[in-house]
Write a structure and sequence with these properties.
This is General stress protein. The protein is an alpha+beta fold. 29% of the residues lie in helices and 38% in strands. It has one domain: Electron Transport, Fmn-binding Protein, Chain A (Pnp Oxidase, Chain A, Roll). A hairpin with a 5-residue loop joins strand 4 and strand 5. The longest helix has 15 residues.
Length: 173
């Protein structure tokens, strides 16, 4: 039993609240840029995060006639899943989404590439804004960056020892 414990990594847990939670959420969402946006209708689709605001809300653009918007009208509960790189920057969030047609927010979130989905540009009548308000989340990342984590993985494999560089914890705004 002792030999098993000797090879087990020390668990690094850091539960974050308030400003620290918002900063970690924004960092991981920016790293990933895209998430799986899962509605209560059991539909999951990739969505590009257009903005994370100072309160930790995530903003998306969506088509008014999309299945996603229909599912949100029936039930605003949403889960988001992020993966920023193959071995780090993981985040899951649970919360509620609301849909609006706030033209000022559309203007702020707009980029030319979105014309692929909204062919009439930022004034396309189908564009809606989704505001996601996270209630809680969980993250898993590495403490020292991908390069150090990669070196520790290789060194650990060579030594036959776990050299865990991960850090994980809950997020509450």
């Amino acid at each position: 039993m002792d030999s098993i414990n000797r090879n087990q990594p020390e668990q690094n847990v850091e539960n974050l609240t308030g400003r620290a939670a918002v900063e970690k959420l924004a960092e991981l969402a920016k790293q990933a840029e895209t998430c799986f946006f899962c509605t209560a209708g059991d539909s999951a689709r990739p969505m590009n995060v257009r903005e994370v605001d100072e309160q930790g809300n995530l903003w998306f653009l969506s088509a008014s006639d999309s299945r996603k918007n229909q599912e949100l009208a029936a039930n605003p509960e949403v889960r988001l899943f992020f993966q920023g790189s193959p071995h780090a920057h993981f985040l899951t969030l649970a919360g509620r989404a609301s849909v609006s047609r706030d033209q000022d927010k559309i203007d702020k979130l707009w980029s030319f590439a979105l014309k692929t989905w909204f062919t009439e540009g930022k004034d396309d009548p189908r564009i809606t804004v989704i505001k996601f308000e996270p209630a809680h989340g969980y993250y898993w990342d590495n403490k020292h960056g991908a390069a150090v984590a990669g070196i520790k993985i290789l060194l650990g494999a060579a030594l036959g020892k776990t050299l865990d560089d991960s850090i994980e914890g809950t997020l509450r705004a």
